[in-house]
Specification:
- This protein is 38% helix and 29% strand.
- The protein has 12 helices and 20 strands.
- It has an 8-stranded mixed sheet with strand order 6-5-14-15-16-13-17-20. A 6-stranded mixed sheet has the order 8-2-1-12-19-18.
- Helix 1 runs parallel beside helix 9.
- It binds 8-demethyl-8-dimethylamino-flavin-adenine-dinucleotide (RFL) and P-hydroxybenzoic acid.
Length: 389
């Protein structure tokens, strides 16, 4: 089998890139290890920036997003009794959207057959070959048979644990990493949200986030030590903890219900440089991870796809060899700014086990400053709504 671009991974990055390349008449095949149902069962992001919505619009796949998504004009930072509202719309003239990653992925998956985007699910033992040459290939097993897909480029969209990043020799790559001493315990439930905007809360018992997927489906998180087991968190215990951490007003409006999904995700900041080596381009979680505070992960995957699609179009349609060479630098400039924002919001809103009175005083001073300064609120709003691509 031969194609122009072999895409590894059918998460949001891989499917978005596949559709964008197809729309430009560039041949590609997406290779995914899991089944479609498994991919759709992963409950992850919920907040979309303009870059992500813009790509769905460009593909003409935004109808359900526009019909079912919720426009969010602002969000809230809670610190004990006080609620600081960041008016994103006022400061930036733009909004974000609440629409689940699962729904985006479903829209992209459903549109693949009619647009001729080939996605191979259930591919085992995916391996990359000859990435330093102009004729790289991907081998995998399907239904017990070994197959090889040759291509001009490989796009590694296979998430943090996939094989693409590992195919780059250690001698040319550099890793930057911060692992946080807690994880987020999330619950998804078919109950109305406690507030019409997101609330990120810093409480003496720890962090909490009130988010949503729709007017009838809520998503909440608390931070927990990494030693916690999901079995120890009954729905009742989790709702009680959320009610305390989110404060009395949110608690009074909170509707409890059985969990549709409950899981613990570790928090990490991670960047791999460069994002291109030879004929391999990395996109999304394959190259970088942000802690979920600030909702940047999926949106960063979308901005990488924006840059990589443009680079590959430059190569195939305009004979522009420099476009691919420039990809890593362009993508990383935006990645690092989003890493900074996610890390700083994580530091501001979580109680770290090693923090003492000084670190807490710094949090209080920063929250005081944000509460009293339009400039500080504008800066947060600009980052939250999404930096330009
Ligand atoms: P994905 O979604 O991990 O997709 C990678 C795909 O590659 C496949 N794969 C392989 N395929 C073939 N062969 C192999 N050997 C393979 N190994 C892996 C996988 O099966 C998968 O289908 O990466 P992608 O496309 O880069 O997308 C990144 C986003 O998923 C991620 O950044 C976000 O979910 C992060 N995130 C959030 N981002 C936001 O923008 N807003 C949010 O509100 C938000 N909330 C979150 C989040 C992530 C969370 N968790 C669980 C990590 C909340 C949580 C709790
Ligand atoms: C979510 O709704 O899952 C969500 C929202 C905001 C975040 C992280 C996750 O910062």
């Amino acid at each position: 089998m031969h194609t122009q671009v072999a895409i590894i991974g059918a998460g949001p990055a891989g499917l978005l890139l596949g559709h964008l390349l197809k729309a430009e008449g560039i041949d590609c095949v997406v290779i995914e290890r899991q089944t479609p149902d498994y991919v759709l069962s992963r409950i992850r992001a919920g907040v979309l920036e303009q870059v992500t919505v813009g790509l769905m619009e460009r593909l003409g796949l935004d109808a359900r997003l526009k019909a079912e998504g919720l426009i969010e004009e602002g969000f809230n930072l809670a610190d004990g009794e006080r609620l600081i509202r960041i008016d994103v719309e006022k400061f930036t003239g733009k909004t974000v959207w609440v629409y689940g990653q699962t729904e985006i992925t479903k829209d992209l998956m459903d549109a693949a057959p009619e647009r001729g985007l080939e996605v191979i699910y259930g591919a085992e033992d995916v391996a990359l070959h000859d990435i330093e040459s102009d004729a790289p290939s991907v081998t995998f097993r399907r239904d017990g048979r070994e197959e090889r897909l040759t291509a001009r480029f490989i796009a590694g969209c296979d998430g943090f644990h996939g094989p693409s990043r590992k195919a780059i020799p250690a001698s040319v790559g550099r890793e930057y990493e911060r692992v946080y001493p807690f994880g987020w315990l999330g619950i998804l439930a078919d109950v109305p949200p406690c507030h019409d905007e997101l609330i990120y809360a810093n409480h003496e018992r720890g962090f909490a986030l009130a988010s949503m997927r729709s007017k009838t489906r809520s998503r909440y998180y608390i931070d927990v030590p990494l030693t916690e087991k999901i079995e120890d968190w009954s729905d009742d215990r989790l709702w009680d903890e959320l009610a305390v951490r989110l404060g009395p007003e949110a608690a009074a409006n909170m509707t409890r219900g059985p969990a549709i999904e409950k899981s613990i995700a570790p928090l990490r900041s991670y960047v791999f440089e460069p994002m291109r080596h030879g004929s391999l381009l990395l996109c999304g979680d394959a190259a970088h991870i942000v802690p979920p505070t600030g909702a940047k992960g999926l949106n960063l995957a979308a901005s990488d796809v924006h840059y990589s699609a443009a680079a590959l179009c430059g190569y195939f349609k305009h004979a522009d060899n420099d476009a691919v060479a420039a990809y890593s630098g362009k993508a990383l400039a935006r990645v690092w700014k989003c890493e900074r924002f996610s890390w700083s919001l994580t530091k501001l809103m979580h109680r770290f086990p090693d923090d003492g009175p000084f670190e807490r005083a710094m949090q209080v001073a920063e929250l005081d400053y944000i509460a009293s300064s339009d400039a500080a609120q504008a800066s947060i709003a600009e980052n939250y709504v999404g930096l330009p691509v």
